[in-house]
Amino acid sequence: MRGKHSLFYHILIFIIAQLVWLSLLGIWIYWYVSNYIVFEKVGDQVSPQLIYDVQNALPFILGLVLLIGLSFTTSLIFRHLNVQLRITELYDNFIGNVTHELKSPLSSIQLYLETLKHRNVSPEKAKQFVDLMIKDTDRLQRLINSILEISAQEKKKLAQDFQVFKAFVVVKELIEEACEKFRVEKESCIITGDTNCQIAASGEALKVVFDNLVDNAVKYSTKTTKIDVSINCNSKKVLIDFTDNGIGITSKEQKKIFNKFYRIYNKEIPNVKGTGLGLYRVREIIKAHGGKISVSSEGENKGSTFKIELPAYDALSKRQLKRFLVTEK
Prior knowledge:
This protein has 329 residues and is of the alpha+beta class. The protein contains nine helices and seven strands; from the N terminus they run ααααβαββαββααββα.
């Protein structure tokens, strides 16, 4: 809310600044034209040199250029200021989200350790606590790795091990693993398709993609999660449609959902955890594979469909083959 007010005030200041410059421009034109008319009327009564100086258009043109230049500069400053405000807002969101994501498992681990230290806990209960602490440390590890990998990916320093896979086999396997990991019932995780085409891909990177999609499907659902995935291909592309029965995504949010740090808020599920980096990372991975991803939804509580397009192996150019499979002999 503070960000919206701040933006409103800056827009107001920008409009006032433009009105001031336009007023100065109007005064400048009025002054010049008035003097020109006066000298036209009394020109015969003043010296020829003075008439020549007043009618010279050079100062007038320079004045216009100066005012237009100042107006243009003000616009640039305003644009830069808005970009800076946006970056600051994203930074604040990132710090808030990451701090929360780090604090929750740390607090949980501390509680289990203090319980083990100060109370007599049965071996079975102690084992249960240790398992939960391992789960929390894994969560912390995934978060830290995710941030480091996004940074490396943006700097194009993240090495990925591309290999050639049968598209249906590898995608089906990764989605089934994700469904099991995020506790989606086997009968609610439907994967269909009939294709023998191949893709050049990093299995680890695609695992991140489908882990994020399944995780979001679970987190952003108010009922039993159902996932339908169809995998098909044509001569050029592998087409993957990932559909869930979650809360859906409005058309306005569909344009922002892949932006860094952007998160959907829904009053029915206000405590969804996350950093706002998941779908951004998904998009960057798909782009690194030469593909693209989009989302569609019929509206709130009507689920979402993510459409992924990856280039088929047989359709890869020599440049893509060299880039993806540079280590392959």
